[in-house]
């Protein structure tokens, strides 16, 4: 028996939503141009169902991953770039934020990811520090556990092997984007060695773990000019990540594969403090 995503386990409403979201993507009336955005509904639903029972994992769409080149760490007036903290922002510049501030500096190098699953750490605040913003909890760590890149589905008139080949081409395109996104994460956080990734074309998808050794060339290209950067060799080379076979997301085998991703994400922060009522 296939694993059931926590958000849809025993919940026919959520199961029905996933069916409707798939139908929206395929609709010739409401997706007549066959663009990718209607497919976001399906992936938002699936990802939310995937981590529905894990409080510290949250789905975030259109997430920016960025870093400031070393020459830009001080602006023309000698100040640090990026956002300025509010006077009452107790979290400003505190904790382990692997994606740093959410507002990049003017000359930052950045990419926007269709979806990420963020892994959050938090600590309970004393009664006297509780306020309207934090509801008694302060975020102490935030890191990207999963990258998801969604491409539009193939031409709906294609059939058989021709359709399979075009799906593979679209998924491969998403894989290339994910490697670039992962490289940005690794430059931004030198301690980070890997990140989970899903490449999708409509309802079809493939996944892998992208490791630092898979994107050495991209990291090198992004890091040129950083006086602290030390290349492992004069000509960096990449190892090839192992992507699993492309599957349709509503198949039982897909659920079992998502279970593997779920377990990997959950292990990232099992010791997180949780509110007493969660």
In words, what does this structure look like?
The protein has 278 residues and is of the alpha/beta class. The longest helix has 29 residues, at 160-188. It has helices at 12-26, 39-50, 160-188, 216-223, 252-266, and strands at 57-67, 96-97, 109-124, 137-151, 194-201, 204-211, 247-248. The protein is built from five helices and seven strands. A hairpin with a 2-residue loop joins strand 5 and strand 6. Strands 1, 2, 3, 4, 5, 6 and 7 form a seven-stranded mixed beta sheet that branches.
Keywords:
alpha/beta, seven-stranded mixed beta sheet, 278 residues, globular
Coarse morphology = globular
Query: Based on helices, strands and strand pairing, what is the structural class?
Result: alpha/beta
End-to-end Cα distance, whole Å, is 29 Å
Strand content: 15-25%
The overall pLDDT average reads 82
Radius of gyration (CA) equals 20 Å
Q: What ranges have pLDDT less than 50 throughout 5 or more consecutive residues?
A: 72-103
**Using DSSP, what is the number of strands?**
7
Number of helices, counting only DSSP H or I runs of 4 residues or more: 5
Q: Please bin the fraction of helical residues.
A: 25-40%
Q: Tell me the series of helices and strands, N- to C-terminal.
A: HHEEEEHEEHEH
Biggest pleated sheet: 7 strands, mixed
Query: How many domains make up the 3D coordinates?
Result: 1
Q: What's a quick, concise take on this entry?
A:
This protein is of the alpha/beta class and 278 residues long. It has five helices and seven strands; from the N terminus they run ααββββαββαβα. Strands 1, 2, 3, 4, 5, 6 and 7 form a seven-stranded mixed β-sheet that branches.
């Amino acid at each position: 028996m296939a694993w059931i995503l926590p958000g849809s386990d025993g919940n026919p409403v959520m199961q029905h939503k996933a069916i409707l979201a798939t139908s929206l993507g395929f609709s010739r009336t409401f997706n007549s141009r066959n663009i990718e955005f209607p497919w976001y509904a399906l992936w938002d639903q699936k990802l939310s169902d995937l981590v529905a029972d894990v409080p510290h994992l949250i789905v975030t769409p259109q997430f920016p991953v960025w870093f400031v080149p070393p020459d830009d760490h001080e602006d023309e007036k000698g100040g640090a770039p990026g956002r300025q903290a509010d006077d009452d922002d107790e979290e400003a510049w505190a904790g382990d934020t692997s994606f740093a501030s959410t507002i990049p500096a003017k000359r930052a190098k950045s990419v926007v990811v269709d979806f990420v699953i963020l892994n959050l750490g938090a600590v309970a605040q004393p009664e006297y520090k509780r306020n309207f913003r934090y509801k008694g909890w302060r975020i102490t760590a935030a890191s990207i556990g999963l990258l998801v890149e969604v491409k539009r589905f193939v031409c709906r008139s294609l059939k058989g092997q021709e359709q399979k080949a075009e799906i593979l081409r679209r998924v491969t395109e998403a894989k290339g984007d994910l490697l670039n996104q992962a490289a940005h994460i690794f430059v931004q956080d030198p301690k980070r060695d890997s990140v989970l990734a899903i490449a999708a074309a409509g309802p079809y998808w493939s996944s892998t773990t992208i490791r630092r050794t898979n994107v050495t060339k991209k990291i090198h290209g992004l890091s040129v000019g950083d006086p602290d950067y030390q290349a492992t060799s004069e000509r960096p080379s990449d190892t090839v990540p192992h992507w699993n076979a492309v599957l349709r997301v509503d198949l039982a085998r897909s659920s079992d594969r998502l279970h593997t991703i779920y377990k990997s994400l959950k292990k990232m922060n099992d010791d997180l403090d949780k509110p007493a009522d969660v």
